[in-house]
Amino acid sequence: MTTASSSFGADERGWFGDFGGRFMPEALVAALDELTVAWQEAMADPRFVADFEQILREYAGVPSPLYHAERLSQRAGARILLKREDLNHTGAHKIRNVLGQALLTKRMGKSRVIAETGAGQHGVASATAAAYFGLDCTVYMGSVDTKRQALNVARMNLLGAKVVAVDSGSATLKDAINEALRDWVASVDHTAYLFGTAAGPHPFPSMVREFCRGIGDEARAQCLEQYGVVPDAIAACVGGGSNAIGLFTAFLDDEAVDIYGFEAGGEGYDTGRHAATIHAGERGVLHGARTFVLQDEDGQTTESHSISAGLDYPGVGPQHAHLADVQRATYLPVTDAEAMDAMALLARTEGIIPAIESAHALAGALRLAEERPGQTILVNLSGRGDKDMGTALEYFKLGSPDEETGS
Amino acid sequence: MSTTSTAFATAKAEGRAALVGYLPAGFPDVEGSIQALTAMVAAGCDVIEVGLPYSDPIMDGPIIQSAVQQALDAGFRLDDVFRVVEAVAATGTPTLVMTSWNPVERRGVERFAQQLHDAGGAGLITPDITPDVAQDWIAAADAHDLDKVFLVAPSSTDERIAMTTSSCRGFVYATGIMGVTGTTQATAEGVAPLIARTKATTQLPVGVGVGVSTGAQAAALSAYADGVIVGSAFVRALPDGLPALAALTEELAQGVRRA
Q1: Most Cβ neighbours (<10 Å): which of A293, B2, B9, B78?
Q2: In chain A, which residues have pLDDT < 50?
Q3: Over the stretch A156-207, which tens digit does the pLDDT of each residue have?
Q4: Domain carrying residue A372
Q5: A240 near A214, Cβ under 8 Å?
Q6: B145 counts as catalytic
Q7: Residue A406 falls within a domain, yes or no?
Q8: Are residues A297 and B175, on separate chains, in Cβ contact within 8 Å?
Q9: How far is CA A300 from the centre of its chain?
Q10: Which superkingdom (chain B) (predicted)?
């Protein structure tokens, strides 16, 4: 593991070209500086790196396999490889990030962690890491989301975390982040903020990337070992962008590999009801970084829309903004309907029910396959769909038996 | 010359701290906020901070969040803040805008500074950014003769305090607590070390805000600070009517004279 990962990384103040930086209240600057130093020291310490890799291997089930989805490939007309992050402990790539940040929290001697969560996946992962490391944990979650995702609230409860419902603003993910930051301003001497995605102020975009980059490092090595080539194209879904940057990093300097991020197109980009932040292309500052932001002409954040809670965020990690700006990666919207179709297709062809977030990457990859017959397309299957069965049940009108026996 | 610094100097000449009062523009509506801020001037505020309602204010506690949301829900638009500034500045009291950063960047930093200057505004208070990322604003403020008020916090290192105060004009905003507005009470003993560390770096006046709501606190803090900044308490008082707002202003104005 290295901190200077590629020519597309940040400078020492956290700038990825025109994006990133640290737009934060002065009260938090000392803590962010402390975190930056502690993280860089940890990454340079072979013992920390070895501990992290051991926990990932023995506890989280990493490395996840790279799987050739043959029946799906036949349908698509291209070789589709799935990086099976859905098989990780807690069901998604997010465990990598929280275990890294929680291990760092222990090293820094802090006793409490806070986290924000949208659908609850990062909250559950944070509660899991807190339980594993014996840390006190508070998770902020929009009150709209606590109602929509009661099962994840229950999981966090069972794991011993305190869940705080946030009523302010739109009562969703962005407001949960605001409230976690407010907590942190008052608690920073003993509390670490386990930020859930590769966004926010420096050092979070770089630090979260480094904790997640095993996805791409493993996938690249697996692809070479299993198939003797690097892929022609790679694809990931992008909300805040942690799974995507975790996949992309290993491939950024492979000029022959085309990189695609698929954002939530919601009900269709043209309807305005979407979360395709990069595609919309409006620059702004949100949650500590300059990036692309869904906003009105006064700079007020506007609400994003997606059937997938994990992509339903009006900002995006600043390194993605930069990769789009310098055209190293291409970001395209995928609608709710396309994602749900891809979810059903993967379930029926491969017996894998993906998270709806990951189904966006898959839908995008299926589009790429049409343009790239016979090519190798590597998709990050960032999470599993157990959590999404309520949405699927409603969307596909599932849950009734097909037949009954007897009278 | 900063009219804000002059207001602080005038208070100092009277042997007291300055009283700085905050309300968000557009709360309860644009006209109502003008009347309220004007009433606060009449009842003894030396400097006014007009809040610019923003969808994601991370330094504000529930009281100001709720007021700001009410303003946005009622249709507040960015240009309304300049109307409010113009009306309040017409009283002759230095009037600054306190705002999260994104609305300024969205309008265009230079254009925002021009509009603020044209409205008679004294400057900007920017609680969610630091001078490190504010080069554009610092340049625009200097070009338009506007105050730049950045914050220092109990967690700030001496080096950062020096960097921050060297970028300020008007006054320096010292946060009284580690926390957001309208929650914990600041104490004179708690904030005195920060004020001393700040004053060691600058001749600018130092105001204390965040966690200040009563006349007694204003009196205690006035022994250390050049100004006392109150926000959430005014927001809480306003729904009880202008007389309640004026009574709170008078209580605080007496407080800053009691040190």
Answers
A1: A293
A2: 1-4
A3: 999 999 999 999 888 889 999 999 999 999 999 999 999 999 999 999 999 9
A4: 61-91+212-396
A5: no
A6: no
A7: no
A8: no
A9: 24
A10: Bacteria
